[in-house]
Amino acid sequence: MQRKGISSSMSFEEEEEDEDEYSSSSSQLNSNTRPSSATSKKSIREAASALSPTAPEPSAEVEVQDLEEFAQRPAPQGITIKCRISRDKKGMDRGMYPTYFLHLDREDGKKVFLLAGRKRKKSKTSNYLISVDPTDLSRGGDSYIGKLRSNLMGTKFTVYDNGVNPQKASSSTLEGGTLRQELAAVCYETNVLGFKGPRKMTVIVPGMNMVHERVCIRPRNEHETLLARWQNKNTESIIELQNKTPVWNDDTQSYVLNFHGRVTQASVKNFQIIHGNDPDYIVMQFGRVAEDVFTMDYNYPLCALQAFSIALSSFDSKLACE
């Protein structure tokens, strides 16, 4: 039974054990299976085709040498990258503009810094700069790796890398491939219960190619963006994800999700992201463990920059009012 991964489905102590079941069920797929896109019939679990029958390794095994490269590299298949976000509100304007720090959670208890993010002050819409240097959160710095920007309503967000905005690009830039990439888009919807019930999130990310690399999406105009492709149902090279719907619990009189011990405090911001074809494969989960501390775990096909940006949008969304 253990070899078939059956025993692991009975244990909810650790996330790795729970995911053993997923890796076992997909181990028979060969490594050339095309990863899931929004239109494919295979689920993301099946797309993560190179999973072995053994339990996924903890994130302690993940080596971080080049921060920028690691932050943009999709999580290895079969490994859950476990992270922690801390929110710093200290200082003159940190109450309004806190800084968020992402660290890798290691099994030995040590934390490895990955990314920092902070909201820009003089911006018409919510605009977060993301950096690989916790002391340098400037737009022109060498450490600037990407940004998260919202619409005026604060309900739709787009994640960019540090490339050039096409509206400000010269013709040589357009040809040279230094245009910015869109790495993710997040949409929040109010629900029929108003602001009290669980909110609906849709996450759109670029698809993966045959060798499990992210497809480059560099829009030259507003019709080529991730949001436009999704709204126009042009889903050829994108993956559509959504949050897992919480279940109402009569005992606690609240909506609940099973975070397998990784989240300890109730919050409307807590969420799990899944693919519609495979609700058991948790692509990402995020939730509160203390006043200003949150856990953030992600799996293939997301990278740290995508997951951190999705989490930042959750802090900011106008629908996230508690």
Automatic annotation (TrEMBL):
GO terms for cellular component: cilium; cytoplasm; extracellular region. Pfam families: Tub, Tub_N. Its main location: cytoplasm. Residues 12-22 have a biased composition (Acidic residues). InterPro entries: Tubby-like_C (IPR025659), Tubby_C (IPR000007), Tubby_C_CS (IPR018066), Tubby_N (IPR005398). Residues 23-37 have a biased composition (Low complexity). PANTHER family: TUBBY PROTEIN HOMOLOG, TUBBY-RELATED. This is TUB bipartite transcription factor.
